[in-house]
């Protein structure tokens, strides 16, 4: 599925972005974080 370098880098960058977003929400927007985590 992820045999193309572009897809791999895209998914990796998306994952990093999501992780960063999660950390930010943990500090400021806890209700939203809870909804996203369900």
Which tags fit this structure?
38 residues; mainly alpha; 0% strand; elongated
Compact summary:
The chain is built from two helices and no strands. It has helices at 5-27, 30-37.
Give the helix level as a range of percent: over 70%
Number of domains: 1
Helix tally equals 2
The whole-number mean of residue pLDDT values reads 75
Q: Which spans of ≥5 residues are poorly predicted at pLDDT below 50?
A: none
Fold and architecture overview:
This protein is mainly α. The protein is built from 2 helices and no strands. The chain has helices at residues 5-27, 30-37. The chain starts with a helix and ends with a helix.
Question: Helix and strand layout, with pairings?
Answer:
Blueprint: H1 5-27, H2 30-37
